[in-house]
Write a structure and sequence with these properties.
By secondary structure, this protein is mainly alpha-helical. 63% of the residues lie in helices and 0% in strands. The protein is built from seven helices and no strands. α1 packs antiparallel against α2. The radius of gyration is 18 Å and the shape is globular.
């Protein structure tokens, strides 16, 4: 391992800060919260710089997940996370409704899944991680991540073909 001083940190920060902000933007209510999350993640990076692997992004996502979880626990009233219900608000610049409907259907189906399933799907789909990298971010083995992804995809397909429950009804959390 090379020296992990300010130059190393500055390069990692410049390369990965936008990824962590995007991660936060997909999970938190606003850009300020996402930027704050990224700052908190890089404080941890500096403190634990000897532990950061060469392929740092999955490890950074794991740190970001923990930071979000710690904030949620410390607030007790629940996180101010971005709900996928907000995906129902289509930007005005999108002109063709037929192009938007499948995206909204996907977001509605995704939000009906347990958070556990949503996170593996987000890491692989939104953050573009491999199954092995998602496993690092989730703190599990590659095999466990592959099984979780398979099951989450199966439940998502089912949610896409099943009518939505009455408003206000949430599915039970399933960790299988």
């Amino acid at each position: 391992m090379s020296e992990r001083g300010e130059d190393w940190f500055t390069k990692l920060y410049a390369a990965r800060y936008p990824d962590i902000v995007r991660y936060g933007m997909r999970r938190l209510p606003d850009a300020d919260s996402a930027a704050e999350l990224a700052q908190d993640v890089f404080v941890v990076v500096w403190r634990r710089r000897g532990e950061v692997p060469e392929r740092a992004l999955p490890w950074l996502y794991a740190v970001a997940r923990h930071v979000v979880a710690n904030r949620w626990r410390s607030r007790r009233g629940g996180p101010s996370l971005l709900t996928l219900a907000e995906a129902d608000h289509v930007p005005a610049r999108i002109v063709e409704p037929d192009a938007v409907a499948p995206v909204l259907d996907l977001h509605r189906a995704l939000r009906r899944l347990p958070e556990f399933d949503q996170e593996i799907l987000r890491l692989v789909g939104w953050e573009d991680l491999s199954v092995a990298d998602a496993a690092v971010a989730l703190g599990c083995t590659r095999s466990a991540a592959a099984v979780r992804l398979h099951r989450a995809r199966r439940r998502l397909r089912s949610a896409l073909t099943t009518p939505a429950p009455a408003r206000g009804v949430r599915p039970a959390s399933t960790h299988v």
